[in-house]
Structure formats: structure tokens, C-alpha cells
Specification:
The protein is mainly alpha-helical. Helix content is 49%, strand content 2%. Strands 1-2 form a two-stranded antiparallel sheet. The relative contact order is 0.21. The N terminus is likely disordered.
Length: 174
């Protein structure tokens, strides 16, 4: 169930960019101490979709099943992390590896939430994509996505995975 996002806040498969790791840690962050890897996976999935204009046209605008919509991506970005209420810096060492990742995520979150506030969470995909601020939001999401993917050793240019594949991955560690 979605929680009510404060819109005015300031602050795997082989083809998946979310490959399961055989390691039990991520830079000394144990997989079983907290659900950081699930949160990171959701944040990465959202940033990936929000940063890929080809995906947005071929999946979201076309209404392709399995990928949700812009609002789904925004909720995945902020729902568990509450990044609509506080800075990603709070999660350095858990979800985010360093302050640079956190800063890039903060910029992306603020730009996307600003647009969501202006067009409304139930607006059609086209309202987001045609918004004058969308190119900046897309660029910010791309910078954050590329940084997180590179730090995880993943290719940032593979297409986003379906929400079903993401759910299967994030259930995999239970």
C-alpha cells in the first residue's frame, strides 16, 4: 500500500541490471542486518525508469504492462526511504555508498517531486514528459542512476526490468 507522499517536501535475471550478488556484504554492510539492499534496489529501479527517455516512450507512454507508471516509480523512489522528508545523506553507509551518491539522489528526488506536485500524482504520463522541467529531472535521475549502477558494477544502459522481476529479486533474500 502506498503511503501519502508529501509532494511539497524539500529536503535477478541475466538481463537485469539488478544482479543478485553471491557476497554477504556490500563494502562491509551485511545483507541481513537491515533491508538496505531492498531499498537500494527500489531506488535504483525508480531512477533507472525515470532516467531513460526511450523506456518512457516505449513502455510508459505506450501503456506497456509490467512497468507501472511515473507515479509508481516516484513511490518506489521515496516510499520506504522517506526521501521526500529527509536527505539521502541519512542513508550513507546503508543504502548509499557515499555522499556523492546521496547528493545525486537528492537532486533527482527534488526535481521529480517538484514536477509531481505541479502536474499531480494522477496525471497522465504525457503530462510529466511534456513538463518544462522534465529534461532536468531526467538528467538528474540519469546522473544518480549511472553513479549507483557503476558503484554496483552494473551496466547503466541495459533496459529497466519489469516490476515483477524487481519484486522477485527483492524477495530473493528473505
Amino acid at each position: 500500500m502506498r503511503r501519502n507522499v508529501r509532494l511539497t517536501a524539500v529536503p535477478g535475471s541475466e538481463n537485469s541490471s539488478r544482479r543478485a550478488r553471491s557476497s554477504t556484504t556490500m563494502d562491509a554492510m551485511p545483507l541481513h542486518d537491515m533491508p538496505w539492499w531492498r531499498w537500494r534496489s527500489n531506488v535504483r529501479s525508480a531512477l533507472h525508469m525515470l532516467s531513460d527517455p526511450t523506456f518512457q516512450h516505449e513502455c510508459w507512454l505506450a501503456g506497456k504492462a509490467g512497468y507501472g507508471d511515473v507515479t509508481d516509480a516516484v513511490y518506489r523512489l521515496v516510499e520506504d526511504t522517506w526521501l521526500d522528508n529527509w536527505s539521502a545523506e541519512k542513508y550513507v553507509g546503508t543504502i548509499f555508498r557515499d555522499s556523492q551518491e546521496a547528493a545525486l539522489v537528492d537532486v533527482a528526488v527534488l526535481r521529480v517531486l517538484r514536477i509531481m506536485h505541479q502536474v499531480g500524482p494522477d496525471a497522465p504520463v504525457s503530462a510529466y514528459l511534456e513538463h518544462h522541467g522534465w529534461p532536468e529531472a531526467l538528467r538528474a535521475a540519469r546522473e544518480a542512476h549511472v553513479r549507483l549502477a557503476a558503484n554496483d558494477g552494473d551496466d547503466p544502459d541495459v533496459p529497466p526490468v519489469t516490476l515483477e522481476a524487481l519484486a522477485a529479486f527483492t524477495r530473493g533474500g528473505e
